[in-house]
């Protein structure tokens, strides 16, 4: 997921990347929405901080007034504190709504493509950047593609993966998941043998 500071500082770059990907939304409009929501988030947070500070100072003042025996002033201030608390609750709800909408939009923004990537609507528009010197061997007529075999033996669920992620990230299941985990462990081991250190953020 792209970070907000990056989108703010590189809006034109991100917009061009979305255009290259043939992004279904208006690429400039969605970026403007994100920036506007972030501005609203900051403004709402500032109001929240101010109201919380006012609540703290008012609560302290109420205690001081009671100590001085000024109960009427203290009770009047208590009524104001109730209103402050209501405003804080409303602002917290607003902040949560803004945060939720902002996250939803950010999740829909894909990573920036490499400058050499050509515009296209899908995999069919990809261009071959580099090829092997030797052609792949011819397979027998009855041979099946790996994606067909994966579906046949229930190793990968492409449809469910697309529903969850919104793009080409399949779900590995059963033996497919075990194979994926084994490959990850194998290459982690190879990396460690080569002198690299595994780090989890």
Walkthrough of the structure:
This protein has 7 helices and 2 strands, in the order αααααβαβα. With 201 residues, it is mostly helical. The chain has 2 domains: 4-107, Serine-tRNA synthetase, tRNA binding domain (Helix Hairpins, Orthogonal Bundle), CATH 1.10.287; 145-201, no CATH class. A two-stranded antiparallel sheet has the order 1-2. It is elongated.
Map the helices and strands.
Layout: H1 4-9, H2 11-20, H3 27-67, H4 71-107, H5 146-152, E1 156-157, H6 158-165, E2 171-172, H7 175-193
Antiparallel strand pairs: 1-2
Helix pairs in contact: 3-4
The number of E-state strands comes to 2
CATH superfamily of the largest domain: Serine-tRNA synthetase, tRNA binding domain
Strand order of the largest sheet: 1-2
Helix content: 55-70%
Annotated CATH topology of the largest domain: Helix Hairpins
Percent of residues in beta strands: under 5%
What is this entry, summarized?
It contains 7 helices and 2 strands, in the order H-H-H-H-H-E-H-E-H. The protein has 201 residues and is mainly α.
Name the descriptors:
201 residues, mainly alpha, Helix Hairpins, 2 domains, 7 helices, elongated
